[in-house]
Every structure is written in C-alpha cells, then in structure tokens.
Amino acid sequence: MNTRNIVAIIPASGVGSRMKADRPKQYLRLLNKTILEHTLDIFLSHPEISKVIVAVSPEDPYYQEIDLLKSEKIKVVFGGETRAKSVYNALKCLSTNDWALVHDAARPCLKRSDLDNLLQINDEQGAILATPAIDTIKRANGLQISHTEDRETLWHALTPQFFPAKPLTEALEAAFLANATITDEASAMEFAGFHPTLVAGRSDNLKITRPEDLALAEFYLTHQTENNS
C-alpha cells in the first residue's frame, strides 16, 4: 500500500505563443472540453493523488470560467514568470514529506498505465516519464551539422515528473540563486546532484505546442475514449 501523500502540480501560466491562438493553449477546446480540463481529469480520478495544484498567471482572465477548477480537490495559485517559478510557487503549498507530481497542462493524452508505472518509483532521486530517442539526432553549429549524436543514450523527457517535495524545492532554490537554466524539474534535481530514474512512457503523451498538434491530440483522446467504452 502506498502511504505517500502525492500532490499533482500543473503549471498553467504560459501563453503558448507558438499556437497562434486567441488565448493560452490550455484553454483551447478538444472534444467539448478545454485541454486543461482533459489534463486535470487524469489526476482527479486517480486514487493515489490527494490534491491538484494549478498555477495560473495573475493576468489570466480565463481560469475563472473553468468550473472544474472549483473542485475541492483543486487549489489554484498564481505562477511566476517561468515554468520553474510557477512550480516553485505551487510547491510552497506542500508539506515537506509530500511528493510532487508535476505535469504539463498541455499534455492531455497521458495514459493511466504510464502514470501508474511512474508512481511505483519510491527512490528519493525521483523519476520522470521519457521515451527513447528513435530519430537520428544532429548537433548543430548554427544551421550546419556539427556531428551526429549517439541516440542509444538519448531520451525525450516527458511529464509527469515525480520527486519528493523538499529536495525539489531546495533544488529549485539553488538553481535560482545560481541563475542556472532550468527547463524541467529533473534539470533542477540534476543541478543539485541527483540522478532521477527514466521510466519509459508512451509516445502519444504529446505536448500540444503547435496548431497541428490539436488534430493529433483529438485523435489520441478519441481512441482512448473508444477503448474505455
């Protein structure tokens, strides 16, 4: 029996400029719900997750329109100017013994099986979902190829990313003080000397970033719904 208190953190304060939409991408609609609502449903329905904290922008005019955010299981906080700052603001709501499960707001296609596999990890180093690189990866110098990387050792980082709250908070604080570049929670933990575990996940756990991703996400969500019906 898992006795850890697990809190999901959803940073949702970005504007998603690459979507070229009239609102942040998490508020675009797929299958009659916003992307954010699809994402939240994954965590609200999971029995091991006690609470969901959503970090929104202080200038966000849309989040109050989402009835799901009024759930007793959800707490809304204001995020910062970066993803890392938004996650840090959410972490302030956690107890030192909690575990933080951080997931992108624009990844609505996460499968329960991948989430369950990640939650099996009980190592203090933490863990992330990831997929092995399958394409040939080029290192560039400007727009010219410098060399080809060995893809056998390369993985694409996904979310959720799963860490004890206290060391993750301390790792982010240390990175902020050093002005280190933090692109995800794992990079903060790596900066602090940790070596998180890679948990192989599904490639359909895509992050909606560009307009063409919407059709693909709709396909995946429709397929999931059909399989569950």
TrEMBL record:
<keyword id="KW-0414">Isoprene biosynthesis</keyword>
<dbReference type="InterPro" id="IPR034683">
    <property type="entry name" value="IspD/TarI"/>
</dbReference>
<keyword id="KW-0808">Transferase</keyword>
<feature type="site" description="Positions MEP for the nucleophilic attack">
    <location>
        <position position="151"/>
    </location>
</feature>
<dbReference type="GO" id="GO:0050518">
    <property type="term" value="F:2-C-methyl-D-erythritol 4-phosphate cytidylyltransferase activity"/>
</dbReference>
<keyword id="KW-0548">Nucleotidyltransferase</keyword>
<feature type="site" description="Transition state stabilizer">
    <location>
        <position position="25"/>
    </location>
</feature>
<dbReference type="InterPro" id="IPR029044">
    <property type="entry name" value="Nucleotide-diphossugar_trans"/>
</dbReference>
<comment type="function">
    <text>Catalyzes the formation of 4-diphosphocytidyl-2-C-methyl-D-erythritol from CTP and 2-C-methyl-D-erythritol 4-phosphate (MEP).</text>
</comment>
<comment type="pathway">
    <text>Isoprenoid biosynthesis; isopentenyl diphosphate biosynthesis via DXP pathway; isopentenyl diphosphate from 1-deoxy-D-xylulose 5-phosphate: step 2/6.</text>
</comment>
<comment type="similarity">
    <text>Belongs to the IspD/TarI cytidylyltransferase family. IspD subfamily.</text>
</comment>
<dbReference type="Pfam" id="PF01128">
    <property type="entry name" value="IspD"/>
</dbReference>
<feature type="site" description="Transition state stabilizer">
    <location>
        <position position="18"/>
    </location>
</feature>
<dbReference type="InterPro" id="IPR050088">
    <property type="entry name" value="IspD/TarI_cytidylyltransf_bact"/>
</dbReference>
<dbReference type="InterPro" id="IPR001228">
    <property type="entry name" value="IspD"/>
</dbReference>
<feature type="site" description="Positions MEP for the nucleophilic attack">
    <location>
        <position position="207"/>
    </location>
</feature>
<protein>
    <recommendedName>
        <fullName>2-C-methyl-D-erythritol 4-phosphate cytidylyltransferase</fullName>
        <ecNumber>2.7.7.60</ecNumber>
    </recommendedName>
</protein>
